[in-house]
Amino acid sequence: MSTKDYLDGEYKYGFYTDIETEDFPKGINEDIVRLISKKKNEPQWLLDYRLKAFKYWLTLTPPSWAHLNFPDIDFQNIYYHAAPKPKQKLESIDDVDPELIATFEKLGIPLTEQKRISGVAVDAVFDSVSVGTTHQKELEEIGVIFCSISEAIEKYPELIKKYLGTVVPHTDNFYAALNSAVFSDGSFVYIPKGVKCPIDLSTYFRINAKETGQFERTLVVADVDSYVNYLEGCTAPERPENQLHAAIVELIALDNAEIKYSTVQNWYAGNKEGKGGIYNFVTKRGNCEGINSKISWTQVEAGSAITWKYPSCILKGDNSQGKFFSVALTNNHMQADTGTKMIHIGKNTKSTIISKGISADKSSNVYRGLVKINPSATNARNYSQCDSMLVGDQCGANTYPYIDVKNDTATVEHEATTSKINEDQLFYLQSRGLDMEKCISIIVSGFCSDVFKELPLEFSVEAVKLIEMKLENSVG
Amino acid sequence: MIEIKNLHAKVEGNEILKGIELTINPGEIHAIMGPNGSGKSTLAKVIAGHPSYEVTAGEINFDINGKMVSILEQEPYERAKEGIFLGFQYPIEIPGVNNVGFLREAFNSICTHQGAKGMDQKEFKEFLKPKLELLEIDDSFLDRSVNEGFSGGEKKKNEILQMAVLNPKLSILDETDSGLDIDALKIVAKGVNSLKSKYTSTILVTHYQRLLNYIQPDFIHVLHDGKIIKSGGKELALELEAKGYDWLIK
Predict the structure, then answer these.
(1) Looking at beta carbons, which residues of chain A come within 8 Å of B96?
(2) How far is B236 from chain A (nearest CA, A)?
């Protein structure tokens, strides 16, 4: 994504690509689940998994505990699969429909051999399918697997069988069960023993089709002594109807492995009156399975009409570390209920939570987090800092920290602040020749700096611009 | 440079300025003195456009491109772009915002407005070098957050550094001397004196005569109860030092 595009205000990614999609019936039932599986030529075990998840989903009701307010979703009024019609059999990325290549280029994600970004491998997901993955050859040479999950199911069934659903089981929650039944595409990453992945891996998700849900599934496995830096970006066209996005991301870090996972989420958030926008119900969880393993989640949540998302870490291995760095910005009528869970199981496990929530206009922004120290987690340590900033006086911010400590040797620290951008700060910056919007964005960027510095440089520049753009019209 | 006529201003319903008359020409340094609560800081903030203060009567006209233009309707940043700088009595902390980044942002904003080209990071660092030396400021100062955790003296030096960088036509220094030890005071004075030219003007708002030992004003005005009650040359400062304000007030 080029940063200059963010400078011009309005949502830049709201365009729609007019591309022919395969016919697929609307709604959800067992036949739909079977049809999805069939379309993807899946093995029987995976169909069984989907059906099991679907049956379980039928017994559930959507969660209502979050601080979110929206009409019931009609799950029969959604297309669960949308794929651009392939014009020919794809041999390489250069065979991809030029229309799709052009779409991603417009989004700042060049995919073709000549134009792709060096230093970052990209998997591009368009509605329900991955349209291409760059740099696959180079990665293969060092044993790194980076491909769409559909491809992985076909080519590496043993790995998928071993890890899929082990961190987020289909019984985890309503949206996880739904995803497990109908998940479409997403990325699969496997970093073999001892390999430090030399380039960043990234997935770019694009929702395009109308009335379609996106149910991607991402699985990242870092074997013993390995390292990977993974980035994720998302956009969608502007539409007056709400669209559902219910993803699952599972991370597994074995002994001494480290996974860094960064997201810049900029789904369409609806218009000024709160019409349209993506409903973002996502379950992201990492398992620090091995000793000394590390997982860090860094997220900049700046889009979606509704965000319901708690990237979490299960700290199973002794000395393992989980980190969560988050900036959640809401404006207009956006609602976010986001945070993390840190589950300490192993000895000497450590977790850090830094959350920055910014609410503007009439939006609502909630931090919800759980720090759980199990009896086995001797000498566990947690530090949490949750800061909220209010821009204007019609927005709301809430913090719900849950702390559950079952071991006396644990140290848990929690700090929380709520502030308003004060007039003195604004006057000070203005008196140095900076206009009001610039002043607000400077103050907010400063407020978020602890999180932004965790992002890879390119993402960090982008995040600052994104925040700037979002706040542009929020200044009264 | 600036003309203030019959200026009345209030904050939270209280009238603080009650008819200020003041004209400052290019090249002049004016000191505004007076007891606590006389309206000195209010005058400084009103010229810079602080939104909490309401101008109820009078005029402030400023030289913009050779013409005296009313700035009362201008936002603070617009005034800053035209070359008005306010050095704060209590500089504000902006957590997480890199000092040099902020400084360059401000510099470029003003440059662009005045038709000059902005500077990139490298050029700007070079441009800063002599100014840092003059003010005896360490490089590490630049990478800290704006005023966050700065000592009182460091904050004031940072104000002078901003002034030196932004190169304003009119500098208003609000109690810049307060809270400074004598060494810091000398450095700050050096900074102000180095910027003196026949094109620029300075307003020193101060409580004490001390600063005026290091910066020679052309005029001194005594403010009391929202009005200038006495004006004179630099010898007036010594008289005030000797006699206090009481003889003027009664």
Answers:
(1) 445-450
(2) 31
**Exposure on the CB side of residue A320, measured as CA atoms within 13 A:** 32
Spatial strand order of the sheet with B2-11 comes to: B14-24, B2-11, B53-64, B67-70
- Is pLDDT above 60 for B204? yes
A460 lies in which domain range?
424-476
pLDDT, mean of residues B120-144? 91
- The predicted structure's pLDDT at residue B209: 80
Alpha-helical regions (H) of B15-58: 40-48
Provide the shortest C-alpha distance from residue A428 to chain B (in Å).
7
- Are residues A418 and A442 located together in one domain of the fold? no
What six digits make up the tokens of A263? Answer: 């997201």
Q: Domain containing B244: what range?
A: 27-74+169-215+223-250
Q: How many CB pairs under 8 A join A and B?
A: 77
pTM of the model: 0.84
The distance of A431 to chain B (nearest Cα, Å) reads 5
Query: Which A residues, 389 through 428, put their C-beta within 8 Å of a C-beta on chain B?
Result: 423-425, 427-428
A249, A261 in Cβ contact below 8 A?
yes
Q: What is the chain B residue with the closest CA to A452?
A: B96
Domain shared by A387 and A472, yes or no: no
Q: Are residues A333 and A430 in the same domain?
A: no
**Over A338-400, what HEC string results?**
EEEEEEECCCCCEEEEEEEEEEECCCEEEEEEEEEECCCCCCCEEEEEEEEEEECCCCEEEEE
Which member of B49, B52, B166 has the closest CB to residue A432? B166
Do B159 and B234 lie in one domain? The reply is no
